[in-house]
């Protein structure tokens, strides 16, 4: 999300329909071998002519990061996502390359990855060492305008139970370097190894949040605020709450769906915070187990309700989420879009399910890459 440091001066905060933006991470691939290619810098240099600061490099040389501007409506967000992806795809084509949106590298020798030259990355490698070996992974991040840090931290408590459901809905990383992992979101498992990653703790206030961050910094667990990798965090530089739990969606339409759902979650949670509801205190082991179940089976299997601990169909958990969000989705104007697109995902499958179908039918990870290239600029909904 760019150009938002002064967002509250440009557009007043609207608790019923806050601005939303999406960051996406992509992988550059060679069209002949279909392997991840360490040439993201050249793609970014070309794409910057159209996108400016909305596009940049990431920690590995295989990755491109692109960001929408803040949007009031989901239709506007989807338009920006399509334009952004088109610009990146065009830049890659000019370099004789292709781009895919997948949570993991389907093919390629990316362990250990080639790291982008940056002094900050050097400090991180010295601190985290071989944790970087599996960093050729791509996520989708949603920023929702929420300038009050106290409320942002309290809203986070209400979002925590639904993080596994978001993982299942947007699962898009079943293959890793040519191997079928047996998981819908292998990226989730890779990412969970980091010391400050996964679901954030339950915090009673922004002061408690800041105290924990100070302790982690003093203990040298964090290099800087940018290495707070929890799946929900108040942005260190923007007046937003960032939800960063999912794989990057294969299509722009799925990314727009994710943005609409996350914004509705924030609107719903904010209303509860204003009523004095502190949010559910979930047992850490249940939330961890729920993450694992969602990452393994995605939308097609079962889910563990992290509040009750009950095992139920993942589709039932999604239904419960939509029921919770219905008033907020009506307020933001996204109810029909979200209901229709979630129903469509139940029919055609998540990104992970679609990758798995191609891999099973054709027996080739290269065919999966070709399908992801088509999905990158294509339409799942329409």
UniProtKB/TrEMBL annotation:
GO terms for MF: ATP binding; glutamate-cysteine ligase activity
A GO biological-process term: modified amino acid biosynthetic process
Top-rank lineage group of the source organism: Bacteria
Entry-linked Gene3D superfamilies: 3.30.590.20
Catalytic reactions on record: L-cysteine + L-glutamate + ATP = gamma-L-glutamyl-L-cysteine + ADP + phosphate + H(+)
Listed InterPro entries: GCL_type2/YbdK_subfam, GCS2, Gln_synth/guanido_kin_cat_dom, YbdK
Keywords: ATP-binding, Ligase, Nucleotide-binding
Function: ATP-dependent carboxylate-amine ligase which exhibits weak glutamate--cysteine ligase activity.
Family note: Belongs to the glutamate--cysteine ligase type 2 family. YbdK subfamily.
Protein name: Putative glutamate--cysteine ligase 2
Organism whose genome encodes this protein: Acrocarpospora macrocephala
């Amino acid at each position: 999300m760019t150009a938002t440091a002064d967002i509250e001066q440009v557009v007043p905060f609207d608790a019923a329909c806050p601005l939303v933006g999406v960051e996406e991470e992509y992988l550059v691939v060679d069209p002949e071998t279909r392997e991840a290619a360490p040439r993201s810098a050249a793609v970014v240099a070309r794409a910057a002519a159209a996108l400016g600061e909305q596009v940049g490099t990431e920690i590995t040389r295989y990755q491109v990061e692109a960001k929408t501007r803040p949007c009031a409506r989901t239709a506007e967000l989807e338009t920006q996502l399509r334009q952004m992806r088109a610009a990146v795809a065009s830049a890659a084509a000019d370099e004789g390359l292709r781009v895919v949106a997948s949570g993991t590298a389907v093919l390629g020798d990316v362990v250990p990855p080639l790291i982008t030259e940056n002094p900050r990355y050097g400090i991180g490698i010295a601190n985290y060492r071989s944790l970087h070996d599996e960093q050729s992974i791509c996520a989708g991040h949603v920023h929702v305008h929420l300038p009050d840090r106290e409320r942002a931290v309290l809203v986070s408590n209400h979002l925590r139970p639904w993080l596994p459901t978001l993982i299942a809905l947007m699962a898009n990383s079943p293959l890793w370097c040519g191997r079928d992992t047996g998981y819908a979101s292998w990226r989730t498992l890779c990412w969970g190894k980091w010391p400050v990653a996964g679901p954030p703790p339950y915090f009673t206030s922004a002061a408690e949040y800041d105290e924990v961050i100070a302790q982690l910094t003093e203990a040298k667990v964090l290099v800087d605020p940018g290495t707070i990798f929890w799946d929900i965090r108040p942005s260190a530089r923007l007046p937003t709450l960032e939800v960063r739990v999912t794989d990057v969606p294969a299509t722009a339409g799925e990314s727009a769906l994710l943005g609409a759902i996350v914004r509705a979650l924030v609107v719903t949670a904010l209303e509860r915070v204003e009523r004095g509801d502190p949010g559910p205190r979930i047992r850490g082991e249940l939330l961890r187990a729920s993450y694992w179940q969602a990452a393994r089976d995605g939308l097609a299997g079962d889910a563990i309700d992290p509040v009750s601990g009950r095992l139920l169909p993942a589709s039932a958990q999604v239904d419960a989420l939509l029921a919770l969000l219905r008033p907020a989705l009506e307020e933001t104007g996204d109810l029909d879009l979200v209901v229709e697109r979630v129903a469509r995902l139940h029919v055609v499958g998540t990104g992970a399910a679609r990758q798995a179908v191609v891999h099973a039918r054709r027996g080739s990870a290269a065919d999966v890459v070709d399908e992801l290239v088509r999905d990158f600029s294509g339409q799942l909904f329409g």
